[in-house]
UniProtKB/TrEMBL annotation:
Annotated coiled-coil segments of the chain: none
InterPro entries attached to this UniProt entry: BtpA, RibuloseP-bd_barrel
Pfam name, any one: BtpA
NCBIfam families: thylakoid_BtpA
SUPFAM superfamilies attached to this UniProt entry: Ribulose-phoshate binding barrel
Protein name as catalogued: SgcQ protein
Protein family (similarity comment): Belongs to the BtpA family.
Organism: Gordoniibacillus kamchatkensis
Signal peptide range in chain numbering: none
């Protein structure tokens, strides 16, 4: 049994993304609508995801485009306010993802009581955001320093819109990441949000680290969820839950329910 059962309540867990609108300091922040509007949109998405039956949610500043790798204080403060206001309504385990800053994700997790964070913890990349470096040793020490030792770390090992500077295959990356860092999960992604994760890639990663939780991180849809979950231990799902399956839209509860009905049927057939 993996930690997914203990922390999220089930194996083959579905972690749903609650994407936050552009925040203060972001290029596309709407000054006229302000923070109240952002909180209201987050509330609608959270309630739709929970009504649809997801196992967990992850709050992310998904619309803080283009992303920073050293996130500003105002972003974390805004995310903390939103989650704080939603706290009485949150009925499932939740995590956070401050794109793309591992330390600030952990800071937000401690402030809000999040159970997990997803981040780019390791590697050096050539990315759309410039040269992208990490320092996992420093990050994990920061995790312990701020009292976040119980926060699960979901390592994204296929960064979106980026490529490793070193010429290494995904199997080598997965094996060394697990050996050196003891991640709670590895997230395997497509190129961008909504792009299907290769089942071959999932299979290759799971084969070399069979004792580690492996999550399909992008592009899991109603049509492919059974195939993805037949390999992965769970999935992070965002775009397909939205109206018309479009990244920029709000969550459509009917799409969530149809998806989760199929997931529950798949889990029942596994027993």
């Amino acid at each position: 049994m993996t930690w997914l059962k203990e922390v999220l309540g089930t194996e083959k867990a579905i972690i749903a993304m609650c994407h936050l609108q552009p925040l203060p300091g972001d290029p596309y922040y709407d000054f006229d609508k302000g923070m109240d509007y952002i909180c209201e949109m987050a509330k609608k998405d959270l309630l739709a995801l929970q009504e649809g039956g997801v196992d967990a949610v992850m709050f992310s500043n998904e619309f803080s485009l283009p992303y920073l790798t050293d996130v500003k204080t105002e972003t974390v403060a805004a995310m903390a306010r939103i989650i704080g206001e939603l706290m009485p309504l949150i009925q499932v385990p939740f995590g956070v993802n401050v794109l793309w800053d591992a330390k600030k994700s952990l800071d937000l997790a401690v402030a809000t009581g999040a159970k997990f964070v997803r981040e780019i913890f390791t590697g050096v990349y050539a990315s759309d955001f410039g040269l992208w470096n990490t320092n996992v040793g420093e990050t994990v020490r920061h995790q312990r320093h701020i009292g976040a030792a119980n926060v699960k770390l979901l390592f994204n090992i296929v960064p979106e819109a980026a490529a490793y500077l070193a010429n290494r295959d995904i199997e080598s990356i997965a094996k060394s990441t697990v050996f050196n860092n003891r991640p709670d999960a590895l997230c395997v992604s497509g190129l961008t949000a909504g792009t299907e994760t290769s089942t071959q890639l999932l299979q290759n990663v799971k084969a070399v680290v069979p004792e580690t939780v492996v999550l399909a991180n992008t592009g899991v849809r109603l049509e492919n969820v059974e195939k993805q979950l037949s390999i992965a231990d769970g999935a992070v799902v965002g775009t397909t839950f939205k109206f018309d399956g479009k990244f920029e839209n709000q969550v459509d509860v009917a799409r969530v329910k149809a998806f989760m009905d199929k997931v529950r049927s798949f889990r029942s057939n596994m027993r």
